[in-house]
Amino acid sequence: MTLEQKGLRYLKRHLEDADEAFISVRGESEFVVMRTENYEKLKSYELDIAYMEAIKDIKNGNFKSVSADEHIKELKNALRDH
């Protein structure tokens, strides 16, 4: 059964028993479909990890203090360079 044949009905049925559904294109997994609540959990975990990494950097002294104007100037320069 392909996504084109059954679409959303198939995904809903599959997600009753699984956390995610993988969609393959030419035999390679290319997309993942999941329920919104699972996606929100993953995003929350991602923020938690970023927070823990920031705390670790602060504890290890891996940061610098600059004024808001200096920070904005650095951001603009970084954007211009890319």
Short précis:
By secondary structure, this protein is of the alpha+beta class.
Describe the structure.
The chain is built from three helices and two strands; from the N terminus they run αββαα. 62% of the residues lie in helices and 16% in strands. It has helices spanning 3-15, 36-59, 68-81, and strands at residues 20-25, 28-34. It has 82 residues and is an alpha+beta fold. It is elongated and about 55 Å long. The protein has two domains: 3-34, no CATH class; 38-81, no CATH class. The protein has a two-stranded antiparallel ribbon with strand order 1-2. Strand 1 (20-25) and strand 2 form a beta hairpin.
In total, the number of domains comes to 2
Class inferred from helices and paired strands = alpha+beta
Radius of gyration: 21 Å
Q: Calculate the terminal CA-CA distance, rounded to whole Å.
A: 44 Å
User: Low-confidence stretches at least 5 residues in length (pLDDT < 50)?
Assistant: none
The biggest sheet amounts to: 2 strands, antiparallel
- In helices, the fraction of residues equals 55-70%
Give the assembly state of these chains: single chain
Instruction: Indicate the mean pLDDT.
Output: 91
- Shape by Cα distribution: elongated
- Percentage of β-strand residues: 15-25%
Number of helices: 3
Strand order of the largest sheet: 1-2
| Secondary-structure element series | HEEHH
Strand element count: 2
